[in-house]
Amino acid sequence: MKSNRQFADFATWLIAVCGIITPNVTLAAQVNLKCERADVFNPKWNAPLTFVFSGDTRGTLAVTGVLGEFAIPATRKPLTIEPAVHGESIDGVAKARVVLPALADLESCIDRKAGQAAKPPSDDYLNAQAACLQELEPSPQGVDAVAQIRLGISHDPEDTSGEDAFVVFKIMYVAQSKAPDGKMFVEMFPAKCVLQK
Using CA atoms, how far apart are residues 151 and 156, in angstroms rounded to an integer? Predict the structure, then answer.
C-alpha cells in the first residue's frame, strides 16, 4: 500500500509543479472523461468510472460509476505542462452521498483483520482496509461523505500513452471515525482514463 500513497503524492506534486496557469488557452464547453477501471487495486471496482464537467472556470463535476451517481461543484484552470504541451486541471471538494460500506461495518472488519492496535497510515491498517472494501457489501442507503477529486488532463497531440489524464479521488466519511484524527478516508486509483470526443 506504500506505492498507493506514493502514486497519489506524485500525482498531486505533478499538477502543482507542472501546472502553470495559461489564461490564453481556450477551454471546451464540456469535459467528458471515462476511466476504464475505477480502481487498479480493488477487483470489485474493476468497472468504468465517468467524470463530466460542465461549465467554464466554474461548474459542476458529475461522477457516475461504482460509487453511484453524484455531482459536486468544481473549478477548472488551463495549464502549461511543458512549453508546447497544454492541459487543464479540474478540482472539486464537496459533500456527496456515495455507495460504500457503512462506516461501522468497515471499522469492525479492519479491527478483525489488522487488530485494534493498527492505525492509519500503517501498512497493516491500509492492507486490512483494502481487503475489507473488497469483501463488504455497500450500504443500501449509501453513506454521507466528502468527495475530493482532481483531474489532471493533458492535451498533448503526440502523447502515445493511451491515457489523457490522471485522477486523484479521495472519499472521507462524514461520520466520526475511530481513527486517531476521527476521519476515515477511502482512496481510489482510476486508470485508462480517456477523453470522450
Answer: 15
Predicted confidence (pLDDT) per residue in 104-138, tens digit: 999 999 999 999 888 888 999 999 999 999 999 99
Residues spanned by the domain of 144: 2-21+29-195
CA distances from 18 to 76, 83, 89, 105, 120 (A): 15, 10, 11, 40, 30
Number of domains comprising the chain: 1
Using a cut of 0.90, tell me whether the model's pTM lies above it.
no
25-28's contacts with Cβ under 8 Å and 24+ in sequence apart are 25/78, 25/79, 25/80, 25/86, 25/88, 27/56, 27/57, 27/76, 27/78, 27/88
Residue whose entry in the numeric block shows the C-alpha cell 475489507: 132
